[in-house]
Amino acid sequence: MRTQEKIAEDVEQLQQNLENLAKHIEQVSRAKVRTLRATATDAKDDVQDRVNEMIKETNLLVERFREGFKDTREAVSDTVEKHPLATLLGAIGVGLLLGKFLDLGKR
User: What is the pTM of this model?
Assistant: First the structure.
């Protein structure tokens, strides 16, 4: 009987060890899930930061383009105001060149 008692004790110890192992596996799994979630959140934040940075850069480029266009428009407007005859002659010259290229004068 002593052997049966020893076997029973060993089986009980084995069951306790398996229960402890299951608890440890569950704790490790939960920790791994938390780590993966944190990593995913960090990656999402990094991507969002990069997108925000690119949006800012794009907005700056658009603003520079608008300013450059505004400056060009003002320069053309000033030229037309200061030199109306030269502007008219230039427009006529451009019209003639376009007419030659498009052959508008031919029938």
Answer: 0.48
